[in-house]
Design a protein that fits this description.
Low-confidence stretches: none
Strand order of the largest sheet: 7-6-8-14-15
Helix content: 25-40%
Shape: globular
Distance between the termini: 16 Å
Largest sheet: 5 strands, antiparallel
Bound molecules: manganese (II) ion
Strand content: 25-35%
Mean pLDDT: 96
Number of strands: 15
Radius of gyration: 19 Å
Number of helices: 6
CATH architecture of the largest domain: Alpha-Beta Complex
CATH topology of the largest domain: Creatine Amidinohydrolase
């Protein structure tokens, strides 16, 4: 490709992308039936730091009907079940510039078409995207490709524009046809992420309790320890999502659990719901981050 986005910020995006690709390579042989979900996520987050990046959010692991936003809590003993389908979704940031990507592992041949459909839909979308397109055009391409494999897109999960320290920066890229008319502009950075389920699935998600947290408000607690922790969260994550297991027993002693609970109770921090396929059907996902160019895109991950 002839054109190339110039500027220091893009070099940081590229570095975040290279780290994500490297982590994907390192993951080979780490994800299998019986593997401990918590161990996989901690490995991913550890490799990101070793390679010079920071996790942009806690590593997501989605088993079977769990589509997105699940990360194991501190003592979670979940193992990858036999005959399952598993999504690993992780993000890297370098000075706030984020790469977001996901891979699906299949341990049951009857789910293989879900993975292939998600990957092929992503490939078609990255081949098509260029500056000047409308967001819905990407939705049309993704839906058509997914249907070709006899699968159904999950319609309420979307790709998204990213900015410095912002994973969802306003614009989204749908996975189905629709009316989203926002214009895709040169130099914008997007995560494209088709999700697929079986043709008889609902193709939507519902929420339930989660372990990935976000900062909601920076004030509102009196307790000294709670304020100390809140201040740390604000400075350390700068609005990006985080997990309890990154903080308690790592950056603060375990007896700060009361401070953590105070922050949750006062709604200074709140969990994102885990998103589960509404009919409990298995879900696959594929995701890359791209820089949009006048004549195409640069895939970072
Ligand atoms: Mn992702
Ligand atoms: Mn994403």
């Amino acid at each position: 490709m002839a054109s190339r986005a110039l500027g220091e910020q893009y070099e940081k995006y590229r570095m975040a992308g290279r780290i994500a690709s490297r982590v994907k390579d390192l993951l080979r042989n780490s994800v299998g039936e019986g593997s401990l979900a918590l161990e996989i996520c901690e490995k991913v987050e550890g490799w990101i730091i070793e390679l010079g990046g920071r996790p942009a959010f806690p590593c997501n692991i989605g088993i079977n009907e769990v589509a997105a936003h699940f990360t194991p809590g501190p003592d979670d003993g979940t193992r990858i079940p036999e005959n399952s389908i598993v999504k690993l979704d992780f993000g890297v940031h370098v000075d706030g510039y984020i790469s977001d990507n996901a891979v699906t592992y299949v341990f049951n041949p009857k789910y293989e078409h879900l993975r292939i459909a998600a990957e092929e839909a992503l490939r078609s979308a990255t081949e098509a995207i260029r500056a000047g397109m409308r967001a819905y055009e990407i939705g049309v391409i993704i839906e058509r490709e997914i249907m070709r494999y006899g699968c159904k897109p999950v319609r309420d999960l979307t790709g998204h524009k990213m900015d410095r320290y912002a994973i969802h920066a306003g614009k989204s890229l749908p996975n189905v046809r629709g009316i989203n008319g926002s214009r895709i502009l040169e130099g914008e950075v997007y995560a494209i992420e088709p999700f697929t389920t079986i043709s008889t699935g609902a193709g939507t998600v519902i929420g339930r309790d989660g372990q990935i947290y976000r900062l909601v408000k920076e004030k509102g607690v009196r307790d000294r320890r709670a304020n100390e922790m809140l201040d740390f969260i604000r400075r350390e994550y700068k609005g990006l999502p985080f997990a309890q297991r990154w903080i308690l027993g790592v950056r603060f002693p375990m007896d700060y659990i009361e401070a953590w609970r105070e922050l949750v109770e006062k709604r200074c921090i709140a969990p994102y719901p885990v998103l589960v396929e509404a009919s409990n059907s298995p879900v696959a996902q594929s995701e890359h981050t791209v820089i949009v160019l006048g004549d195409g895109c640069e895939v970072l991950t």
